[in-house]
Amino acid sequence: MIDSLFSWIDDRVALSRSGRHLLDKIFPDHWSFMIGEIALYSFIVLMLTGVFLTLYFVPSSTPVIYHGVYAPLRGQTVSAAFDSTVNLSFQVRGGLLMRQMHHWAANIFVGAIVVHMLRVFFTGAFRRPREANWMLGTTLLILAIFNGFLGYSLPDDLISGTGIRIAFSIMESVPFVGTYLAYFLFGGSFPGTAIIPRFFILHVLVLPLLIIGLLAGHLGMLVKHKHAQFPGKGARDDNVVGSPLWPTYAAKAGGFFFLTTGVTALLGAIVQINPIWQYGQYYAYKVSYAVQPDWYMGWLDGALRVMPSWELNLPGHMIPTVFFPAVLLPGLTFNLIYAWPFIEAKLTGDTAEHHLLERPRDKPLRTAIGAAVFAFYFVLFGASATDVLANYLSLSLNVVLWAFRVLCIVVPIVVFPVTYKICLELRATPGAGQRKRHNLVVRTADGGYTTIAAEEYPGYVKAELEPVALDEVDLVSAMAAEGDQGTEGVYQIPRDYR
Amino acid sequence: MPEAPGTDGAGTDGAGTEGAGTEGAGRSGHAGASVSTGAPQFQVAAKNPRRVEGAVAVAFLASLLAFAAFGAAFWVAASSWVLGVTLGVALSAFGFGLVAWGKYLMPQGPFEEPRPQMATTPAEKQEFVADFATRGKIAVERRGVLVKLMGAAGAVLGVVLAFPLIRSLGPRPNQEQSLYHTKWRKGAKLTSIEGRAVRVDDIEVGGIITVFPPDDLGGAFSQTVLIRVQQTGDIVTEPGRETWGPHGYLAYSKVCTHAGCPVGLYEELTQQLLCPCHQSLFDIGTGAMPVFGPAPRPLPQLPLYVDSKGYLRAQADYDEPIGPGFWYRGGSNGGPQ
């Protein structure tokens, strides 16, 4: 049955001709290569849970009276968007779980992209021929951040509405076209009634389609280039060493998808996220305390807080203060990320093709620059909690704000040389990062002492095997030789371990 | 012991096998393959596969039970956390089992495949360019008019997409005028969100209330904070505003001049208004000058008067655009009036 079905398909699409290479495709093994997978899998979780949410969410700001099960809100006038979000949380079976999983998956999605980019940066994986894929990935990060913002704006609750108000001000601040941008997106002045349906269609259709398309390109280029790999285990620039797609990688990656989904489900189950019924409906004249966006917008919020109150007055025109931290800073940031592969190639003069990754310590300058820049954004991220920190530490808001203003300049200046020095030290330490061997201190006959590295502990030594090219292996005869034992999978696994 | 893993030739042979494979040569085409499935690379990674088998079996069993529990919990409409925990445990255990299986019970490798360099040879480039250019030349040669017409049609499409379509998304900013003016008019009663006009004896000293013009209750741009700082007498915050604060009342735009949040927190002791979004602090006694934080300009003050029946009314609209700055906001004080 399976045989004839396979044969039927195979005769029509020549599966066995093209598919064999797919089965043999090698994926290098390293834990850090799984971070990008987390991003991919949480995007799948986002789509699955997101489809569920669209079945119940009403993208409209039409006012309705809340009549649901949540007593404190009953009788209040809320928007249909807010009403349906509360209802799908409390009155739809599994609704709250799906909503919380969706929100958690969004946070994990952006987080995994950022960590994945750090991995790519610090190991030099963006070098030729992967510059374009680095830029594609950066675009994916921007789209993910935008779509995250659109998503948490949709429930029309007090916190997200405040965020939309800030977004309107930021759009207005763009020179020349700012007010037009804002009015065209909002269909008029803030808040209007167009923004929820427009954000909805952007969030569930336009941006996801863009993300899917770019993701396909990202993965397609990965297949074309084949995965970069760390040196060692026979890895060279002209080969890929690791596990084959079938069955090893399929099992590991497939299992990892379920692990990612499982952790997201557990988070959605036991860690509350965005309880909009506690914030209430958004009204333009209401505001809450400790207003913070989702984590990936934190650096922008922090930048808005630490930015001094400078405003540029030109004859008849103005560049408002929010332009600098909320338009100029992200613009510079993402353009710097886009340009980095080319900047580095220019600085080092290295334009050769690279498929072997580098350890961060071996490129102290790149590592130090990356660490310093990342430290800057990390301080800005911390600055988005000035009010909470002031409360928590019983300090005045002034002290905390000024501390962050100083820190976002001082910390990168300190991080740069410290990182640089650590890299040099690590590089100069033989065997750094490898399993330590104990030393024997031996007293010699004439009274001196010397240390001798002890023998390697037997269990620690793993025999370094030469990589095997799979199409060198005659599996067809191996299957034939098994004969009467039947074919239990492609590999004959010797059982001599007993 | 099986044959030694003879992989010396594997890498160099790589380019050839890649090409041959796509042409449909089977594995048997590699007569005399140098590695058998008995090589150590095909042994499982685990030192003790029995134990791993046990662990994977336990994981799959746990997953099976938890999936069933999730189904049951869903059936009886259990609470959200029960659904999530059963689903999360089921998925995690399933994933754990698969990963352990793949990591420990499958051939340990390492395996390799050749990787072609991306850079092409000059000959390849030349052939491609020649193909593209010569065929392209044949196609467009002596068709200059067609090329230009096609380009013109495309350009018109581009312009149409850019202008009328994008233009139809919303009104022009200065048409609606809300950038420069609010709904406050001369004589507009200061009205609470419930629609009640505020009288001069409604608010105690230290009290604060958000007010709107009667025709724009809840308006995002005309929202105004009304604060009473003393029982009697006029409050003068700045020269030229001698009559703006009757009976100890001060009214300021509630829209922060930084990023537009409602300036909602009033500290009576210091007479300061705090914006909870980015912590700008405004001193209401001195015309809501920003004393701390990122706000660049004072909150505009609404001039008030008390009518003969004791109602608080606006003398006029704000004398400058309220809220955050924008490109067309001329200079420090206003724009087109």
Question: Can you walk through the features of this model?
Answer:
The complex is a heterodimer of chains A (about 500) and B (about 325). With about 500 residues, chain A is mainly alpha-helical. Chain A has three domains: about 25-335, Cytochrome Bc1 Complex, Chain C (Up-down Bundle); about 360-435, no CATH class; about 440-485, no CATH class. Chain A is built from 17 helices and nine strands. In chain A, the strands form four sheets. A two-stranded antiparallel ribbon of chain A has the order 1-4. The longest helix of chain A has about 30 residues, at about 395-430. The radius of gyration of chain A is 28 Å and the shape is globular. Mean pLDDT of chain A is about 90; it is low at about 485-498. With about 325 residues, chain B is α+β, with helices and mostly antiparallel strands. Among the domains of chain B are: about 35-110; about 210-315, Rieske [2Fe-2S] iron-sulphur domain (Rieske Iron-sulfur Protein). Chain B contains six helices and ten strands. In chain B, helix 2 (about 50-75) packs antiparallel against helix 3 (about 80-105). The longest helix of chain B is centred in the first third of the chain and has 27 residues, at about 50-75. The chains are: A mainly alpha (about 500), B alpha+beta (about 325). At the A-B interface, helix 2, helix 5, helix 7, helix 8 and strand 4 of A face helix 1, helix 3, strand 1 and helix 6 of B.
